[in-house]
Amino acid sequence: METTPEQKRSTLISLAAIIVVVYGMQMAARILVPFLIAVFLALITVRPMLWLQQRRVPSVLAALLIVTMIMLVLAAVGTILGTSIGDFTAALPGYQARLDIIVDRVVDFIGRNLRGDQSIDSLGDMIDPGWAMGLVATILNSLKDVLTNAFLIIFTMIFILLEASSVQTKVAAAFGRSGNSLEGAKAFLHNLGRYLGIKTLVSMATGLCAGVLTWSIGLDFPLLWAMLAFLFNYVPTIGSIIAAVPAVLLALVQLGPGAAGATAIGFAGINVIFGNLLEPRLMGYGVGISPLIVFVGLIFWGWVFGPVGMLLSVPLTMTLKMMLESSESTRWVAILLGSERDAEYALRQEPDAEESEPDQATSTSS
Fold first, then answer.
1. From 77, 103, 157, 170, which residue has the greatest number of CB atoms within 10 Å?
2. Backbone dihedral region of 271: left (phi > 0), alpha (psi from -120 to 50 degrees) or beta?
């Protein structure tokens, strides 16, 4: 089918609009990042607030209770990040120097066994083992900078929660009670809020187990590794690796190969239990993302919003996927973005639809 000049022009205009929007988001990252955090926090806490309202708690009081709880959590997170990141950043050059010595010894040992192979020497120059630790420090420092906008996040979250209880009445008054103008949006927000809520609970359990693991091994900064495991659990597959590598490297520098191996095995076990067994059962179908899309989204949102965008990449990509699922014309894009498990589920649903068509035809003819 040959495309017409109008279709080509429309495609070019759409691509130009996307580029302009992405560039605008990048320029407005300082404002958008706190706003997005407030929106995600509101989606996580709106169901407890509605539960309080069903128990005849006034809307303002329910919102204040929820926000007070979030403020306490953010204060605790800020305290942990402030002290732990400062100590970790101060000790980071020493850890990196010791890690460089270990890597040089390994490269020299391999080079001697290979009789001075020059490729081994060049490989040693290419390896930067301290890069992972530096990346962790950069991401956590960026998150600490975002938390300095805590008042903006909190006030935005309060207004969103207060608006959530009255938006249905406003839409009914504006468009009529018989209209279904909010049904698709309500289903989308419900699914997104459920996803974020379950993901947050699983991430909290993951962070708690990682903290207990690193504390029991005797690793420095166990609260920092617990926080890192909690944050990066929002990034499937890749996130668990990013969270584990710095802790394993620190265990190698601080305690030796045995502790490093135990740390790696412990993080792998935590990821298998929570990421591969518990979380898929709680989430169900329709909430998976292809590993390739996870990686591309990590790079894209990190480029748009900086290091904090890497932590928000999967919630943002999941939001896009759920929006595409809400329309029949774009559902195929959501399936391509999804995991293989979701695609297999969609294939299993097709024969049921095909079998129902002859039954409907038979009932019509009778």
1. 157
2. alpha
Nearest CA to 270 out of 293, 312, 239, 292 is that of: 239
Using an 8 Å Cβ cutoff, are 309 and 303 in contact?
Answer: yes
* 146-195 pLDDT per residue, tens: 666 777 788 888 888 777 766 666 666 666 655 455 566 666 677 777 77
Q: Please count the other Cβ atoms lying within 10 Å of the Cβ belonging to residue 120.
A: 17
Question: Which of 126-135, 187-196, 248-257 has the least mean pLDDT?
Answer: 126-135
Please state the domain count of the chain.
Answer: 2
Q: In this structure, is residue 137 part of a structural domain?
A: no
> Is pLDDT larger for residue 135 or for residue 127?
135
**Structure pTM?**
0.70
Domain that holds residue 230: 194-283
266 lies in the same domain as 295? no
Q: 170: buried, middle or exposed (CB in 10 Å: 19+, 13-18, 0-12)?
A: exposed
What is residue 1's three-state secondary structure?
coil
The pLDDT, as a whole number, for residue 174 is 63
Both tokens assigned to 11:
């495609």
Q: Could you tell me if residue 144 is inside a domain?
A: no
Same domain, 228 and 290: no
- 111 found inside a domain: no
**DSSP assignments along 108-146, one per residue:** HHHHHHTTS-HHHHHHHHH--TTHHHHHHHHHHHHHHHH
User: Are 144 and 82 a contacting pair, CB within 8 Å?
Assistant: yes
249, part of any domain? yes
Name the 3-class secondary structure at 156: helix
Same domain for 201 and 261, yes or no, is yes
- Name which of 54, 24, 80, 95 is nearest 246 in CA terms: 95
Range 129-153 burial, b when 16+ CB lie within 10 A, else e:
bbebbeebbebbbbbbebbebbeeb
More confident: 210 or 315: 210
